Amino acid sequence: MFKYLKLYIKKEKGLLVGLILSLTILLTWLILMKWEEKVWFGYEFGIISSSLAIGYVVSYIFNFIVVFIPRQKTKENTSEYLQRRLSFLCIEAARTANGLIINSKVKNLTFPLNEDELIRIFENLDPVVSHCSTNLMKRKYNWFEYLKYVVVKQAEDYINEVFTILPHLDIELVKILNSIKDSELFNAAHREIIPQKQDLINARDGRIPRRLGEYFKLISQIDKYLDLNFSYENKYQKERKKEMYGA
Length: 247
Description:
By secondary structure, the chain is mainly alpha-helical. The protein has 9 helices and 2 strands.
């Protein structure tokens, strides 16, 4: 209870000012009641002002117990759920980037990879076949299949899970997640027809580096959001930083 009271006072400074003012009015009224009335309608004015002050104090306590505490408990219950899924979203993106770096053997690159760095990476990779195998046929995906069935599918699963608690998300996070879903990478995965002929697949033509570069940049915004809003909770932070930055 005490920790919620401290948080309530810290977050609702405007309400606290009203409480102090109301308590001051009540204290003043109690003191003045012992004196003889010297102002016309002074007693009536005191009754009205003290009644309003009492009403405010009761409202302040009611808001704390009935509104603020349940809302904070709900937020605490959803914070771990939210942090876990956002962290896994970042981790999977970082693993995608690290896989590209390792297989291309390009040195001195860190997350988030930009378009130019990704162009260098794909110059050292097979332009058609990715490094990821399918689960059923044991063949390797081509790059367009890899982006659609691995990268985008994993990311969408985490984002959709986050959106199940939409009422508890702030506008900043919703904007970032919607930007990811509206990115070229996601739009291509849903609308673009994957070429069946291998000679039509070329990861070096600029499309894939551009799409991944935009995606990794948006993922870095999620990472910054987590650092800013969950810096006091480091349960998933260590794993996320290790995957993304080798920290």
